[in-house]
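Colleagues,

For the teaching module next term, I've prepared a clean inverse folding example: a structure given as tokens, and then the sequence designed for it. I'd like students to try predicting residues themselves before seeing the answer, so please don't circulate the second half yet.
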């Protein structure tokens, strides 16, 4: 059996934002004077870079 083939097949990670995360995000957004959506966009860009 070739292990490399099975390692490449990974299920996509599901990103879920619950109320607590939104609360934290809105606090951070207020501190940085940014909108929550822009923070999420930045986080997604950083995540894609990794």
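(Answer key — instructors only)
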């Amino acid at each position: 059996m070739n292990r490399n083939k099975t390692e490449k097949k990974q299920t996509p990670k599901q990103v879920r934002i619950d109320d607590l995360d939104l609360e934290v995000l809105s606090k951070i957004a207020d501190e940085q004077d940014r909108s929550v959506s822009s923070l999420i966009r930045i986080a997604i860009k950083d995540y894609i870079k990794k």
